[in-house]
Amino acid sequence: MDNSIFLAKFWGWYLIIFFCILSFNPKRIKQIFNDLNDEKFLIVSSFMAIIVGLLNILFHNIWEANWKFLITLIGWGSLIIGLSLFVFPKRMVAFLQFVNIKLVQLIYTLLLLTGLFLLNIVYGIIPI
Known about the structure:
Elements: H1 3-24, H2 27-35, H3 39-59, H4 67-87, H5 89-123
Helix pairs in contact: 1-5, 3-4, 4-5
């Protein structure tokens, strides 16, 4: 299976599942931000984001003007957020809390639309 197709399936399903979890149980968002104040959780979370981002980039670093760029962007975003959480933990947690409070509806919508778009690319439900 092509790496692009595999990662489109992975990120598409992941974003849809994450959207559903946060939509049906919004207390999880508050719990995640409370847990980010715990240094152990923060270190594990930052390492996970770094690993996922780095693996995504190593297997899929395609800078074409099509849907594959979105997968590359997700990988780079994960790597940058993970490194930022590890190097600048207090500033990054404060920034993420600010963004979450101000843009929560936009973020939810982007999660859903990005997931649906990637799954549509893979499964071809609606021809583009």
